[in-house]
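Re: that chain you flagged

S.,

Sorry for the slow reply, it's been a week of failed gels. I finally had a moment to sit down with the sequence you sent. For the record, here it is as I used it:
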Amino acid sequence: MKWVGAGLTVQMNASAALRRVGLCDEVAQAGACPTDSAILKPSGSALTRLPVTRIQEELGLPLVCIHRARLQSVLLAHAGEENVRMGLTVTAFHDDGQTVTVRLSDGSSVTGDALVGADGLRSVVRGALLGDAPLRYSGYTSWRGVCSDVPSATPGLVSETWGPGARFGVVPIGFGQTYWFATQNAPAGGQDAPGETRARLQSLFGGWHAPIADLIAATEEANIIRTDIHDRPPASRWSRGRVTLLGDAAHPMTPNMGQGGCQAIEDAVVLAELLAAEGPVDAALAAYEQRRLERANSFVTRSWSLGRVAQWESSAGRFIRNALFQLVPRGLAARQVRALVRDAE
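Prediction finished late last night. Pasting the structure tokens below so you have them in one place:
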């Protein structure tokens, strides 16, 4: 498996799901557990803070910031590499009511008891199952990178800084590395001129608080990933017969709540538990959809709405937004995290 991608956050609700399959501690050891989380202004002053350590201790669950490839390595080791075929895509499938046969891009086929389409935002399985409309563009693009830790960063702090129509996130992921991301309102389909991505990011964010400029400077140009942010409106169903969807194939969402990967983990654990129980496969898939659809779709909607607010450009809108955030009681965010975990269990 190639070492690709950037970072992500395994939030406490996903850690609760991983604990049910015995992987919570191993995933935590492959990443870093922050002590604090904050939303900041470009000056560095705080709009809101979350005492992560206290909540982790109270719930007995870690919040893990991790390189995507390290998380994949842990999962692959337990799935068994011999059970995974790389470099292939699904081109078609057929459900005959007893088995599902999948045609792959190399011309081969595989037959099994069920098909779980976990093939991402542009899922072939979803397209065949639901006949979806085009993706929904959020109105903003993103850049992501991973670099070595810089001295100007605050140890243990995960932060997201909100400016006019732009944001910058800083996420320490352990092993001497920091994952960062940035967003800016922009038309879809834009590209940076070759060799000019860092210069553009410095022009956008270099005047913001430390360690932002240092992180951009510490990242190799070739290691910066630009991606327009899309999702899909919530679907009313994911399954038909012996075929279902999981993760971004089922409920692609914007990254504003950090729940895309977390909801995929919840999906996988619930689906595995239901398939392991006695009973017909199609009944297990129907039960999986019933348990998961409403919760996952709620994150699609909430994440979309949060992104709209976070990307406001107008001075008046940002002033009101920031004032409201600063008035939120310090304990409210902690209560929301507790509810997030409770609803996942």
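What I noticed first: The two ends are 32 Å apart (CA to CA).

Talk soon,
D.
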